Each structure stands twice: as C-alpha cells, then as structure tokens.
Amino acid sequence: MSATRITAIDRRERSAQADSVLLYGIFGLLLFGPVAFGAVEPWSIFVMEAGATALFLLWIGKQVLDGGMKIRGNPLFLPMAAFGLLIVSQLVFHVTAYPHDTVSVALLYVAYAMLCFLAGQTLLRGAQARSLALIFSVYGAALASFALLQGISSNGRLYWIRQPRMGAGFMDLT
Prior knowledge:
Radius of gyration: 20 Å
Strand content: under 5%
Helix content: over 70%
Distance between the termini: 78 Å
Structural class: mainly alpha
Largest sheet: none
C-alpha cells in the first residue's frame, strides 16, 4: 500500500516538473525566434519545429503520466483549424504554385499550432500569465533597445558579425 502511495506522489511530482518544463519551454522557444534572426533561416526553423515537437511529445507523456487526456478548449483552435484545412486542401488538390514551399511553410505552421495548443493547455494560472507578461515586456524592451543601438551603429550586418543571406539587411539612409 505504501509503495502505491509513493508511486502516486512521485507521479504528481514528475507531472508538476513536466508542467514547468512545458510552460517555460514553450515561451523560451518563442523568445528564441527573434534572436535567431526571426526564425526564418533553415537552422532556426529546424530549432522551432524540433523544439515544438519535443514539447508536444513531453505533453503527451505528461498526459499518460496523469492517467488520461485532458484537452482544454480555446477559441483560437477553430480559426487555426480552418486555416490548416486551407493549407491541406491546397496540397491535396494541387492548387499551389510552389508545392515545396507550401509544404515547408505548412510544417512551420504545424509547429506554431503545436506551440499555441500547448500554451493553452499549460498556461492555467493568473500568476503564470503575470510572470510571463513581465518576462515578455522586459525581453521586448531589451530587444528594441538593442535594435535601436544596432540601427544607429550598423555596418550592415546582423549583430555586427553576420551578413544576412536574404534581403538587403539594414536600410542605408545616406
């Protein structure tokens, strides 16, 4: 009987740890995007997609650990699903001009959809929302300050080191 009790307590502790990893993993991955040149290059897209997949698999493992699937509804799911159906219909009926690009962007859309779904499942308490709002506010202010500094002293490179592969980089006002 005590072994069952220890197992139940251990499961609750592991579930709580998984909740923390999920919550901060999701928002850490979203904070990573702007630092990784907007998550538009192949390596940064891979990090976003692989991170979202790993977090989704962790969420599934947590549901198994908790003993059942609990999915909370969210009003965002319906329009996201409708847009996803539009993407799938383009691929199925071959009405896309660039099938390879459509597939690539569809995979990125699935990654963002997983992150949105996971955020809705794990962000449950007001205290969590307040702390994340503070984190995002400080992060946004720091990133904007950094962008202003780089814009003033730019040499046309990202972070003063790397030339962008796509686009012209920073505007030259002279």
